Amino acid sequence: MTLEHPREGEIIQIHSYKHNGSIHRIWKETIVLKGTPNYIIAANDRTIVMEADGRTWITREPAICFFYAKHWFNIIGMFREDGIYYYCNLSSPFVRDKEALKYIDYDLDVKVFPNMTYVLLDEEEYERHRKEMNYPDVIDRILKSNVEKLISWIHQRKGPFAPDFIDMWYEKFLSYRK
Known about the structure:
Layout: E1 11-17, E2 23-35, E3 39-44, E4 48-51, E5 56-58, E6 63-68, E7 73-80, E8 83-91, E9 95-96, E10 101-112, E11 118-121, H1 123-132, H2 137-156, H3 165-177
Parallel strand pairs: 1-10
Antiparallel strand pairs: 1-2, 2-3, 2-4, 3-6, 4-5, 6-7, 7-8, 8-10, 9-10, 10-11
């Protein structure tokens, strides 16, 4: 059951799963900056992350996260000393229940550097999991199509890749931390 979209300022957890239903990763505390039925923009900094094997670690830098209800990817903009890096997960659209915002991580990732060059990561892991977990052909086609959409967004500087867009959300995040 999906709930109403989260309220601005609400603290949520993010749960990432694998296609077979197993938990992949949990982010303990993320603050919602904007929630609509179609997308959620959230942020965290130095939040605890728990891996599937129980190990935990703490994020090193502020991150603005963009989750979509209709796109098969999510985008995380990370603020580092030398600029904003984006980590884009090819994933199912998000769902939300009382427990958390949830999505299925499909292994493929696009890392975008501050100069807007990018690299596609984890293609071998994707192929291995596609076979092991029997990703349906339709999922394979959707994901490959969404890699192309994501790359198009990067080239067009669309959405989170637009100049100053992520800075605006970071300012909003800072206003909650005061």
